Every structure is written in C-alpha cells, then in structure tokens.
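ESCALATION

Customer reports they have been waiting on this structure for their group meeting. Please prioritize. Original submission:
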Amino acid sequence: MYEDEAGLLSMDYISLIPVLVEALKEQQAQIDKLARKIKKSGKRNARFEQAASDEVLGSEELGDNRRLLSQNHPNPFSESTQIDITLAEEDNGAFVYVYDMQGVQKRKYPVKGTGSTSVTIQGGELIAGMYMYALVVGDTVVDTKKMILTK
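Update from on-call: job pushed to the front of the queue and completed.
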C-alpha cells in the first residue's frame, strides 16, 4: 500500500501477481497430494468420486448429458492456455466470456461443436493479470473459473 502527499492510499495490484501465482502453485500441490492419498487408500466410492469431480470441475445436469467447464491449462500462462469444455448435443450458442477482476468483459470466444471441445486463449490478447472466465450456454451461466496471465 502506498500513501501520497495528500494522504490518499493506493495499491499496486500488479505486484500481487507473483504472490498469487505462488499461492496457486501451493494450492495445486496440496490438491495433487490429497488426490494421491485418496487413490492410495484403496477405498473407492463411485458416487463420492463423481460428486467430488462435479464440485471441482463445475457441472450442470442435463438428463444423461453434462455441461462441464474445466480449469484452464496451463495456469498461470503467458503465451496461450486451453480451456476444455463438454457440452450436450442440444447446446447451441455457447460462449466463453473473459472478465477482469472488476467485472469488465474483455473477450468473448464462441465454443465450436458439442461434446468434448475446447477454447484456446492467446496471451497477447490480454494484459498481464488475473481474470475470470465463464461458460455461458444460451442464457445459463454454467460455471466460472479464474486464470492468471503473466508476461
């Protein structure tokens, strides 16, 4: 935090990016460790695993079909990142919207096809920072995730 001559406080948000990147790395390491622990335990419960998967990935039931929005990979990224998506066959007009942390829409990407598909975002299309992206099908927001772009 900085204070100018008039006593106004301001913050350099760009300097927070490295801290956030390290926090995400630590969080991912912890998730991986827990996943290995569950796998080693040998106690498998398909219903529990599906519920946990839905909670982590985000999904919306559509009869026997599912809409899924996956976390972009790699995350954080600098050159390009891929977002994997699963849509039902009847889903038309799906888009991935990218917003900055103030909620301002920065980009809109059409999702081509149904079933398992993906959207690729080029790092040069945005400035470095943290973003939220949302999968929208028709008028329904399926899920929202966060991503970090570094330069």
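Sent to customer with the following note: Residues 9-149 form a domain with the Immunoglobulin-like fold (CATH 2.60.40.1930).
Escalation resolved.
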